[in-house]
Amino acid sequence: MNRARAFLSPARGNAWLGALRLALVALLALLVAAAARAGDGGDPLQHPDVIGDDVVRTTGRYAVPDVTLTRDDGKAVTLSGEMNDGRAVVLNFVFTSCTSICPLTSLTFAQLQGKLGALSSHVHLMSISIDPEQDTPARLREYAAKFGAGPHWQHYTGTVAASVATQRAFNVLSDDKMNHAPITLVRAAPGAPWARIDGFATADQLLAELRDVTAAK
Hints:
The model is unreliable at about 1-45 (pLDDT under 50). This protein has a single domain (about 60-215), classed as Glutaredoxin (3-Layer(aba) Sandwich). Helix 5 (about 135-145) links the parallel strand 6 (about 125-130) and strand 7 (about 155). The protein has helices spanning about 1-5, 10-40, 80-85, 100-115, 135-145, 160-170, 205-215; strands spanning about 45-50, 55-60, 70, 75-80, 90-95, 125-130, 155, 185, 195-200. It contains seven helices and nine strands; from the N terminus they run H-H-E-E-E-E-H-E-H-E-H-E-H-E-E-H. By secondary structure, it is of the alpha+beta class.
C-alpha cells in the first residue's frame, strides 16, 4: 500500500508525465524528418531541434511548383513569382472556415507582423488556402481583415489541383483538412534552404528564425 501511494504521489506523477512529454516530442522530431525524406524527393530535412513545447524545427529544400494561384486581391499570380521576389518568406496553410488550428496560426502571423518593425518590407507573409473550393478571394479578404493583415501579408486560393500540388510540394498535404497540422515554413531568399517548424510556433520564435536565416543569407 505504501509503495502504491509512493508511485501515485504528485511529485512522481509529474516527473512521469514530464518524461513522457519529452519522449513524445522526440518521437515527433523523428517522424517529421522521416516524413520529409518521403516527401521531398530525397533531400531530407536535417537536424531536428526541439525549440519549444511540442515545436520541432528542421531544415531542408523544397521545389516550388509551377502553379498559378489567385491572390486575395483577385489577381492571378504564379507561386514562384510570389516567393522569389527577393524577400524572405514565411508560409503557412489555412482555410477560412477553420475553427481550431488556423485562427491560432493566423493570430501568430498577426503578432509576428507587429513585431517585424524595420524588417517588414523585407518579409513576405503568405497564407495558402487548403480549401480553395470555398475560399474565394472575397472570403480570404474578409478573413485577412479579421487578423489585420497588412500590405506584406497575402492570402491565396486557386484551383484544387494547384492547392494540392502546393501542399504536396511542401509536404503538408492531409487527407482531412479539419485535422491538418500546424506547420510554418521560413526561407531567407530564393534558393536558400527552408526552415520548417512543426507545431504551434510563437511569434517570437518565428521572429528569431527570421533573424537567423536573414543573418545567414
